[in-house]
Amino acid sequence: MDRTYISDLGQKIGEPVTMCGWVDVRRDHGKLMFIVLRDGTGTVQVVINAKHASAFEAAQPLRSEWTVRLTGTVKERPENMRQDEPNGSIEVSVESVTVLSQANELPFEKDADLNLDTYFDHLPLTLRRARSRDIFHVQATILQAFRDSLVSWGFTEFQAPVLVGGDAEGGAAAFKIDDYYGKSAFLATSGQLYKQIMVGPFERAMTVAKTFRGEKSATTRHLAEIVQMEFEMGFVNDHRDVMSVLEDVMRVIVGRVTEKHADVLKRFDVESPLLPKNSFPIFKLSEAQEIIEREFGGKAMGELDLEPEHERQVCEWAKKEHGSDFVFITHFPTQKRAFYTHTDPESPTYSRSFDLLFRGLEINSGSQRIHDYHELVNTMRSRGLDPEKFAFYLQAFKYGLPPHGGCSTGLERITARMLDLANVKEASAFPRDMTRVDTRLANSEE
Amino acid sequence: MDRTYISDLGQKIGEPVTMCGWVDVRRDHGKLMFIVLRDGTGTVQVVINAKHASAFEAAQPLRSEWTVRLTGTVKERPENMRQDEPNGSIEVSVESVTVLSQANELPFEKDADLNLDTYFDHLPLTLRRARSRDIFHVQATILQAFRDSLVSWGFTEFQAPVLVGGDAEGGAAAFKIDDYYGKSAFLATSGQLYKQIMVGPFERAMTVAKTFRGEKSATTRHLAEIVQMEFEMGFVNDHRDVMSVLEDVMRVIVGRVTEKHADVLKRFDVESPLLPKNSFPIFKLSEAQEIIEREFGGKAMGELDLEPEHERQVCEWAKKEHGSDFVFITHFPTQKRAFYTHTDPESPTYSRSFDLLFRGLEINSGSQRIHDYHELVNTMRSRGLDPEKFAFYLQAFKYGLPPHGGCSTGLERITARMLDLANVKEASAFPRDMTRVDTRLANSEE
To answer: Hey, of A25, A35, A98, A101, which one would you mutate to test binding to chain B, going by the most B CBs within 10 A of its CB?
Structure first.
């Protein structure tokens, strides 16, 4: 008999079915054994009655995470046994059990509250938890919505490289490969230079880039390997054209997550992100600092960036006053932004840059870029960067780039805020940081 | 006036328009200047008549790759001047010219036939060539078709990590980061172990993984950084279930490329890939070797794999006899495949493995995998691998994985064969190999 996926069982009431999956939970009630069966599409309750002797016997050794093929009949549950969840009103009465693979006894209870290190130590098992599956289903949807929306607006996806010749931006701590065919190479800290180059061929370019940061940071926000969703577009008037596309992307992402994963949002006890009817609120950094001081007290004015606490405050205020979980902060001091950032001609100590905050966290950073070759070279020099080291990149400008701008969204950060995860590492399936690459570094071998 | 994209000009005949773009080519005919203008959506011919004095004057300095904003009126070309190409029957008569950015004189003629090294040295410029834009538009479509088809069949995308703790498969030459927070780390040679792990949470998992191979190979097929389109699925009967999904993916890719890029295929003088009405032809390695000896002479039988020349021959034969540009080769000797490959129980020196050849080149490799924990550990030991070093990965098996299988398609390889590119490096926007990371290594600085 062809296999039926668990999500399709509701359409087969009264029919015989064969299912494959993992034993999620097993409970014994004398002559009845109850199993929650899990496959890639969902879970369902299965009952094995002792009167089906060979099935009942075959089921005796079953424990959590064993995989099985089960054949039985789909039945409606008695009214008083129904649950308000997928397949909550059906169960499958099973008459045949085939074990496909066994599992060791689990090192902890299925739903035990684990500390993060234990959770990460056992990812090949713990990623199977409902909570983890939810997180990464939502993450896949976010990524897909990002790509689909930009493709529909004329952006072309390209592959930004991971291996680069130097630590391009000069600021971030880049990981180094000491022996790259006898020379050295580095891991990209951003796809920035490449997406600017790709404005030349495509005008509108996007990439989902793996980026790497070796800072010695142990905060809940630091990952050594990050997925950046980046886009760059030509012929902009200023940074606001980029913000406008970004806002549209965010609206598609929120719409898609809300539509596909209402059940997940409910399980995580979070609301669908609040979107204002009109545009996302936009404040210059100095305006945001005024709001923070006025509404929350403390000292913010004159700082070159927002402290994490200030990001949370301005978001709290924007939610209350503007009905928005998203806030743009613009016009950061030029000296605080990367060398390629365009200044604001009206006030050159400030830049045509922005951050997008989402529920208290900066999830995106962008700007209009310098497009004039000579201005870019001069800016590099004024910052102590050697244009010679950027000769490859600078060709894009030598041979004509229009006014352009772009931005970069951290996939793990937006996922974490979407589901209110306390630590961004939970939004990386295989997080890398100061302390671990799969296993903890203290225990790792050279 | 709002900007009109070049691809939309055909709908605006007789109307005033503003366009932005690059000067692709400029030609002077006395009192008429002709410009081919290029934006992200296409090209169009523009005419500037000396009678529009200020526009004509502003246009005088224009050279290839300058970027401009032009305002004018869309006109139909005289019958005898029409070309059979997009916008071939219109031109825009321009009355206003604004220069947005300048470009240096190009280092070579726009369409000069360049050797590959010169081409790669100047990628920020040469990626703008029509040929390069075509290649990477097609590549973006291939990737999108891969993802869309698998998502529609219930696969969930995840992010395989780049940073890994060890050279997992023990065979490939992995690049090493000597100082990863005081320990060492490596770059992934494949997403294999992670996609097997992700069968646990998702049953059907896919990833577009950056992978890295440090072999000292200078062939036209070697790249140090590769994009692998990978998927893995649970509850398979054997490798043929994987092949069946892969074949469907290839049919979607071919369909999408043919539909969206008929013009590109024409410009590259290649046919749309030939698909057999029934399934792709499948030969065991030994059968393929027989065919090669019988049809082409030479020595093939008994070899553990196909030589590149033999791959070309079996493809040539399959195209002639089966009307297919795709051929599956199965049952490679177990000893030649990775440790996780499932043997064929009927003949254990052979494996439930396959390669997919496309137009003479292996573009995909896959198999059913070992799913039993003890069998996997024993196989590792028999191959001299230390199961301790795989402890993280092995948890997936300790805690129950069903029979599963998967495969991996090289994005650059399938792109190269789709467009008949002589060198796979041309299908990587920023190719990395023994000799270069953007710039040539001989010239690179430590």
So the answer is: A101
Token readout for B434 is: 């023994």
pLDDT, averaged in runs of 10, over chain A (446 residues): 94 97 96 97 97 97 98 95 92 98 94 93 97 98 98 98 81 86 93 97 98 84 93 98 98 98 97 97 97 93 93 97 98 95 95 98 97 97 93 97 98 98 96 93 54
Q: Which residue has the tokens 């035990």?
A: A112
Do residue B40 and residue A154 have CB atoms under 8 angstroms apart? Answer: yes
What pLDDT is recorded for position B111?
81
ipTM metric: 0.96
Q: What is the pLDDT of residue A298?
A: 84
Chain B residues whose beta carbon lies within 8 Å of the beta carbon of residue A100: 235, 371, 402-403
Give me the phi and psi of B113, to 5 degrees please: -75, 110
- Chain A, nearest residue to B372 by Cα: A101
Element (H, E) at A196: helix A192-202
B contacts of A20 (beta carbons < 8 Å): 234-235, 402
d(C-alpha A6, C-alpha B154), whole Å: 12
Q: What strand order describes the sheet that includes A326-330? A: A156-157, A204-212, A225-234, A404-410, A361-368, A353-358, A326-330, A282-284
Contacts of B446 in chain A (CB under 8 A): 183-184
- Would you call B201 and A446 a contact, using CB atoms and an 8 Å cutoff? no
Q: A391-398 vs A373-382: helix axis angle to the nearest 10?
A: 150
Left, alpha or beta for B298 (phi > 0: left; psi -120 to 50: alpha)? left
Q: Among candidates B68, B88, B63, B64, which has minimal Cα distance to B78? A: B88
- Partner residue facing B162 (CB), from A101, A162, A185: A162
CA–CA separation, A152 and B148 (whole Å): 14
- The domains found in chain A, sorted by start residue, are 6-101 (2.40.50.140), 128-428 (3.30.930.10)
Interchain contact, B402 vs A432, CB within 8 Å: no
| Contact between chains at B181 and A372 (C-beta distance less than 8 A) | no
Tokens of A186: 């580095």
Tokens for B405, please give them: 């299988």
Q: Which of B289, B368, B356 is nearest to B329 (CA)?
A: B356
Residues in Cβ contact with A50 at an 8 Å cutoff, skipping those fewer than 6 apart: A30, A31, A32, A56
A437 to B164: CB separation less than 8 angstroms, yes or no: yes
Instruction: List, for residues B413-429, the tens digit of each pLDDT value.
Output: 999 999 999 999 999 99
Angle between helices B391-398 and B192-202 (to 10 degrees): 30
Q: Is A161 in contact with B67 (Cβ distance < 8 A)? A: no
For B:218-277, CB contacts with A below 8 A are 224-225, 227, 234-235
| B153 min Cα distance to partner chain A (Å) | 11
| Token pair 């990386």 in the structure block, residue | A428
Pick among A159, A227, A238 to test the B interface (most B CBs inside 10 A): A159
Min distance B327 CA to chain A CA atoms (Å): 27
- Give me the pLDDT at residue B446, please: 36
Q: Collect all residues with Cβ–Cβ distance below 8 Å to A294 and sequence separation of at least 6.
A: none
Q: Residue B18's closest CA among B73, B62, B59, B76?
A: B73
Any idea of the CA torsion for A241, A244, A245, A249, to the nearest 10 degrees?
Answer: 160
Residue B168: its pLDDT value, please?
62
Contact A164 B438 (CB under 8 A): yes
